[in-house]
Each structure stands twice: as structure tokens, then as C-alpha cells.
Amino acid sequence: MMSGAIKKYQTRYFHLVWAIDALKELKGRVLDVGCGQGGITAGVKEALPHLEVYGCDNSQKQLEVFLKSNKELGIKLKKCDAHKLSYGDNQFNSVLMIDVLEHLRRPKKAVSEAARVLKKSGVFHLVIPLEAELTTFDGWIKKLFGKNLKKEPIGHIHQFTLKDIKELLRGRGFRIKRIRYSYHFVYQLISFIYFLYVNLARRGKYMLLKTKSKSINKLIEGLSNLVGWLVYVESSILAEVEGQTAHITATKV
């Protein structure tokens, strides 16, 4: 069963699809750390209803939006910090951490906490941007100018290489099973143009792509959907080729 929460033309489509793929053989409890408003979490529960799904986030406001939209799914929510999860040891069969580590002050501590609450042989599915790699626009901006274009607008306070993440996982008792990639050239180009403009023209202040004109908003939506389809095709073809974002499935040894 595939969730209707995220469509193929939405850029986080593979965030959900590959999370579901990582969990499809599992039973028991799944924890989504940094679940936000719950798009991925709800999609996992809809696709795999036999799983007992939990979500945690450090924002009460985000959790309230999550609950309002997905109350009927029975997902158990809790406000807590990824650096100190409010769960006992060995409680979960799987832990998800999707687009979270790059925002955290102590990413090593957060991965250690994921390992702590995960049962032996449990699945850890991590989605992380590789914004220090020279296969990305961000990596070249960092290398040439020492600049992180996403720090101010969206809080990416860390930029990682694939080597960084592999060492981080292995150092905390994980064995990597599979890595797939999304966000290749098309997504990176559009993202680069947007964040360059935000940093140069708006002093790093995040900007919503929405105007007072309905016709312009329809045009923006249409262009966004077109880009989304191109990203979908690109990621489908190049899933095994290193892109901006890594989708890593690992097990606790």
C-alpha cells in the first residue's frame, strides 16, 4: 500500500518511499525522531498499518499541527529533544531520522540516542544532506568561499560528507546495509539559485514562494510541479549515483 500523503511530483517523495521500503519487513514499534508536522510519519503508518508508530519533536507547535491532521492514525506523539530521547533502552524495532542531523548542535549524541532506544538488529533509517561533498553545489560553495548558504534560512548548521556519516554510524554500533540518493542536478540547481538569492538579496531571511496574485501563484505552483517531476525522474534513474541527499538504511549490531 502506498500513502497518498506525498505525490511523485513532491520533492520529498523518495524520503517516504525509501523509508517504507526500509521498514516493510519489520514488525513492532517505529520511532520517527524529529517528526515535525508528520508528513513522513503519517505516510509510513498509512502504508504499514501493522506497525506501532511513534513520533517525537522538540516543537510543541509542530506536534499540535501533526495531531490535528493525523489524529485518526493513532500515532503516539511526545515532545522531546533528539539529544535526550524520553524513551527507555531497546524499546524500538526501528528508528527514523529524516532531515534532522544537519539541524542539531550535537549530531553524534543524537545518533547515540537512536542506538540506545533501538533493539539489537533493529533498523536505523537516516536521511541526510551531504552538503560538504564536491558532488554538490553546496560543497563547492563551502570549498571556494567558506560559505554555508542554508545556515541562516533553514538552520543547516552542519554540512556533512558521506565519509563523515559512515564514520558516525559505524562509531555508534551500526552496520550500513544500503545507501540510495536523491536530489541530483535539477534540484540542486534550483535550490542553489534560491538560496543564493536569499543570502544576497534578503540577508539570509527565508522567503516563501507566494504572492498576492492568484495567477502568479498558479504559475509558481505549475513550475514547482514541473521541477518536482524532473526531480522524480532524475532520482529514479540515478538512485545509486551520489547526489545531494543520502538515504541510508543501517542495522544495530
Give a verbal description of the structure:
The protein has 253 residues and is an alpha/beta fold. It is 42% helix and 20% strand. It contains 9 helices and 7 strands; from the N terminus they run αβαβαββαβαααβααβ. The protein has a 7-stranded mixed β-sheet with strand order 3-2-1-4-5-7-6, sandwiched between helices. The chain is globular, with a radius of gyration of 18 Å.
Secondary structure: elements and pairs:
Blueprint: H1 13-23, E1 29-33, H2 39-47, E2 52-57, H3 60-70, E3 76-79, E4 92-98, H4 107-117, E5 118-129, H5 137-145, H6 151-154, H7 162-170, E6 174-182, H8 185-201, H9 214-237, E7 245-252
Parallel strand pairs: 1-2, 1-4, 2-3, 4-5
Antiparallel strand pairs: 5-7, 6-7
Helix pairs in contact: 1-2, 8-9
Task: Give a brief outline of the structure.
By secondary structure, the protein is of the alpha/beta class. Helices cover 42% and strands 20% of the residues. It has a seven-stranded mixed β-sheet, sandwiched between helices.
Sequence of strands across the biggest β-sheet: 3-2-1-4-5-7-6
What is the chain-wise order of helices and strands? HEHEHEEHEHHHEHHE
Helix content percent band? 40-55%
Q: Summarize the biggest pleated sheet.
A: 7 strands, mixed
Q: Beta-strand level of the residues, as a percent range?
A: 15-25%
State the total count of DSSP E strands: 7
State the shape.
globular
Going by helix content, strand content and strand pairing, the class is alpha/beta
- Distance from N terminus to C terminus (CA atoms, Å) equals 30 Å
- What's the helix count? 9
Radius of gyration based on Cα positions: 18 Å
Mean pLDDT across all residues, rounded?
Answer: 95
Which spans of ≥5 residues are poorly predicted at pLDDT below 50?
A: none
